[in-house]
Structure formats: C-alpha cells, structure tokens
C-alpha cells in the first residue's frame, strides 16, 4: 500500500484528520526549534541591555539609541532581504533542484554584501545624523561608539541570515537551535570579560554581541558540515567559458532582487512602525512616562512575536516545499493548519495579557504610574496580537508562494494609511493620549490581518501557484565533468532570468 504522504489529495476532497495531524507534526517539528532560537536571540539582546545598564544611565540611553538605529537601518533590512530566499529555496528543495537551491544562497550572500556598504556609511555617520535631528550630545556620542564597534556584525549577518533561510527551507532547524544555545550561553561570560574584567565599557558590550553572532555562524557551519551533512544539499558554483565563478553567481541577481526587495519592505514596513510609535510617545503630555511604558510594551511584543515569526518562516518553507513538489493541496493544507495555529496563539496572548497585566508590569519597573499605564494598555496589546499572529503567518504564506509584493501593498496600506492616521488622530486630535497610539496599532493589525486572510483563503489559486513554482524550478542541469564545462538548458523561458548570467551566457555548475 502506497504512502499517502507521497501524494497530493484531490481538490474536491477535504483533508482527513490523519493528514491534518501529520501536517501539525511536520510544522511544529520545524517551528519549535526556530521558536527556541528566536527566544535565545531575544535573551541575548536582554543581556546586552542589562550590561549597558550596569555601566550607567548615559551608557544605557546611548546603547538603546544605537540599538534602535541599527535595527531600523541595518538588521531589519538584512533580515528582510534574506527572506527573499524563502520562495526560491523552499520551492527548489521541493522540486529537488539542488543547483538552483545552492546558487540562490550564494547570490543572496552577494546581494547582502552589496547592501551593507550603504548601511555601513549610515552607521559610521550616526553621530552627525542624530545631532542633526536634535538628539542629546552625550547620548549621541555614546550611541556612535556602540554603533562603530557593531560594524563587523553587518558582515556576520550577510552569512547568518541567508544560512538560516537556506537550512529552514530544507527542514534542518535543530542545528540552529543548538548553535544559538551554545552561543548565547557564552554571551554572558563574554560580556563579563569584555565589560567588567577588561573594562571596555560600551565597546565591550557591542563587541560581545558581534562575537556571539560570529560564534553562531561558525558553530552552525561546523555542526551541519560534520553531523548533519546528509540532511542538506549544497553545491558550489564556478563559471565556465572564461566567465569565472562571479559570472554564475552574478547572473540572475535581478530576478532574485524582485523577490528580495518586496520581502524586505514587507518586513520593514511593520518593524519600522513600532519605532514610529516610540517617537510619537515622546510628543505626548508626559513623554518620560509614555516612552518608559512604550519600551516595556515593545519588549513584551518582541517576546510574543518570537512564536508567530517562527511559524511564518516554517509555513513559508512548508508551502514552498509542497508547491515545488507539485502538491498544491498539501501546500493549501499547510497554510490552513498554520493559520489555525496562529489564531490559537492569538487567543492565548489575549488571555494572558488581560489576566497577568498588573503582575507583568511589576517585572519591569517599581514606578507606580508606569505600571498603571502599562497595565491599562496590555489588553489592547493582546488584541493587537490576536490579529498579528494570523497576519504574520499570512505574510509567511505569501512569501512561500513568491508573492511578497502583495504583502508590501497590504502592510503599506494597513500601517501607514490606516494605523498612522488613527494613532495620531486618537492620541493627539481627540486627546486620548497613550492608549490612542495602541488603538492605532490595533486598527492597523486588524486591517492587515483581514486583507491577508482574504488573499490567502479566498483569492489564492493553489493549482496556479504550483504551476508557477514549476516554471521557477523545473530546470535540467548537467554537472561539471573534468575540465570541460557543459551548458545549462532551461525547460521554461521564465527560468532564464534566474539561471542565466548577465551577459546571457549559460551557467556551468561544478
């Protein structure tokens, strides 16, 4: 009797309970390690803030300013661009096109190397930019120091972010969790050595974060290369016909950028909006109180975001794998199961933010007005998460189907044409104050979630998406043989942009 897992089911049939349970197992076997990894990365950030706090209020303020600046101008961009790999890698893995899978990874590393050049210029000029914006001189000087010593982290992330997507698309998630655990365990001693023992201060905190990310990359490469080699496929490319390896990797960058740039904008438009909320809080009647409460609430949302972010990445891989394998209704099943899980997580977040709102605020501060303000807004934040969980998961589904442009349009409209006017109007025009900002976020999340759910559930033709995936990945490739290079012949005209070099020459794979 043939295994049902090897076949798609028919469009006129609903999936059986067994198929749903199997999909749940498949999804969470990937998502749980990624969630643990995200939590560890969150803990690393908290440790850095704690060591900055030990140095003094000026160092803490400068470090916080620098962290916000680097998140907006650097890390969000690199994470977003790397997510453009998700549809290509996951669909290539599903169709067993190992050459396209490996070549896309190399191209993304090249894209990120180009991206960090302007980002580095921004980081080097942080002090001038902040002073131009009227920031405090002392805080700005401290932020500039932290940012300067964080520059090597840009190079590390050009390898770390694409490698995470590359492995996740092949269902290899546990190594990332193990490597993150080991790296974060050493993060505390690193901070202690550099900050306390060596007395390096703010540069020491920045350098510890850089070393921790470097450790993650090295450990991941060693672990996978030594112990999990059979679970992944990686083939390095070299050029033929005198073109050199750069011709192979450089070709098709434009097609990959068409996925990477919208994926980047889809993530950044939401990420940046939270930073805008912090800025707007500074213009309220009691800015110190509002900004302090905002900091606690954003840290809380960051913690809650680790689960839907992991689920979004994994459903993107699952949907892409099944579409690449020519199984549209298994891809649909993966999407629907993930959305169901997202709604469950959303209701859990609503529940605990309402029940534990007073106790939660006490974990962060002893200031009674700040605790009261945080407690009053947490139920609104919980409702935001009720919409954010399916919205984030829906964005992952859109990336898995290679439709990030739709996500960009939805996020732009929801956060900047719905959320921003509502937040500004309620907080300042109707003088509701701090709660008005979070009602603005709620309106944005609801608009975003409804739009994405409509696209995924109502407007998605899964058979058509499978055909698109076939055009993207169905390529005949011959391997490098001895000293002679052979041509790569595409079956579909649409694939040429991904696989040909800039001059229109054919690729050789070795």
TrEMBL record:
The chain crosses the membrane at residues 30-52, 64-85, 105-124, 178-200, 206-227, 290-312, 333-352, 410-430, 436-458. It is a multi-pass membrane protein. Its main location: membrane. Signal peptide: none annotated. Coiled coil: none annotated. It is found in: Membrane. GO terms for molecular function: antiporter activity; xenobiotic transmembrane transporter activity. Keywords: Membrane, Transmembrane, Transmembrane helix. It comes from the Eukaryota. InterPro entries: MATE_euk (IPR045069), MATE_fam (IPR002528). One of its GO terms (biological process) is xenobiotic detoxification by transmembrane export across the plasma membrane. Belongs to the multi antimicrobial extrusion (MATE) (TC 2.A.66.1) family. PANTHER family: MULTIDRUG RESISTANCE PROTEIN. This is Protein DETOXIFICATION. The lineage of its organism: Eukaryota, Viridiplantae, Streptophyta, Embryophyta, Tracheophyta.
